[in-house]
Amino acid sequence: MQLIESTRLAFEGLSANKLRASLTMLGIIIGVAAVVLLLGISLTVRKMITSQIKGLGTNLFVVMPGNVDRMGPVSPVNRLKYRDAEMLESRNSYNLKVAPGIFNVAIVKYGSRVRKTTLVVGTTPDFQICREWKPARGEFFGKSHLDSDRRVCLLGQAVWKDLFSGLDPIGKSIWIKGSKFRVIGIMESKGYIFDQNQDDSVFIPLTAAQDLFGLTNVSFIYLTTPTTDDLPKAMDEVKRLLRRRLDEDDFSVKSQGEFLSILENITAILTAMLASIGGISLLVGGIGIMNIMLVSVTERTREIGIRKAVGAKPIDILKQFLIEAIAISLTGGIVGILFSYSVTYLISTFANFSIEIPSVAILIGVAFSVAVGVFFGVYPAQKAAKLDPIVALRYE
């Protein structure tokens, strides 16, 4: 009953100064909303990254130019060659599928329609196996197209819809960087990976791409193993084979899991940095609560003296003021959580980016708000509880 009475008195004290209590809550509202939103965004981005990395293909690893672990401000010299991929395919012990390739951006035309920044991917037939990305219509180019430097291509979904308005493009010709290519297929839709629309791509044989762009090297070598268990040993073998021609810093071999780990570490660091902003807001809000509670103790000194004179114990006074501090903080936390839901709704509606707020974020928000109320409310509550009733009664 004493706790109920203390709670009633606490809320009566707050209701007497609604504006002051509301302004005091502002720091807590901002801090809790920031913490909840950042946790939600972090979880959503992490899930997106995981699904996108996995969407590259199962049991996949990649050979890239340069040592990505020690890469400096200057881009490394690319020494990867088509023959390196051919060597890996012929000499590996794990029945690897190997797909070297190059990336380049070029102007793509069909009639009067032009796309100025389409990604042109020059690769080999096993690309569709390594990336688990196959034609939705038509067929992928084969070894004969590669050996004879045939000018054929497959269109990504975005390119097909833009240039042909959804009409059948197979058998028709498009222009890539001023050269004519015959369309033999349309690729399945892959969507976005990070900010890159994978469907905004055109696929051509690697030999045709090297001739078109005047290149002798390759931008990547995709490799896949038959089973996940083979992946670590296959990666070690690929490194040993490449070291016969290339130096340690000329190439990197990375798996999906390593890419995912690197990106998760980056997102974790960014989340921690941003969450510190929310923490600062909570700290400021907590200091505001303590200041307001100290003012409240001063204003209500005579009230405290009267309560003590009629039998209230120091613990009763402490409970009353501590409950007031917790009430301000907890109410601010609840409003902050509701505000974060409103923000996620607006983002989902207008930015087409759905943020998932996990239940653990709600629990953390509530726990933080209560902890701030207790931590910053203890000192004013103790000060009120220790007041001498005779001195308090004489206070004007």
User: H/E series, N to C?
Assistant: HHEHEEHEHEHEEEEEHEHEHHHHH
Which range best describes the helical content: under 10%, 10-25%, 25-40%, 40-55%, 55-70% or over 70%? 55-70%
In the predicted model, the low-confidence regions spanning at least 5 consecutive residues are none
Q: Count up the helices.
A: 13
Structural class comes to alpha+beta
Domain module tally = 2
Strand content: 15-25%
Widest sheet, order of strands: 2-3-10-5-7-6
Overall shape: it is: elongated
Largest sheet: 6 strands, mixed, barrel
Would you give an account of this structure?
With 396 residues, the chain is an alpha+beta fold. The protein has two domains: 2-51 and 262-394, no CATH class; 80-245, no CATH class. 56% of the residues lie in helices and 18% in strands. It has 13 helices and twelve strands. The protein has helices at residues 2-15, 18-54, 82-91, 127-130, 143-147, 157-164, 206-213, 231-242, 256-299, 301-309, 314-350, 359-385, 389-394; strands spanning 60-65, 97-110, 113-123, 135-138, 152-155, 173-176, 179-187, 192-193, 196-197, 201-205, 220-224, 251-255. The strands form two sheets. A six-stranded mixed barrel has the order 2-3-10-5-7-6. It has a two-stranded antiparallel ribbon with strand order 8-9. Helix 2 runs antiparallel to helix 9 and helix 2 (18-54) crosses helix 11. It is elongated and about 105 Å long. It starts with a helix and ends with a helix.
Short overview:
This protein is of the alpha+beta class. The protein has 13 helices and twelve strands.
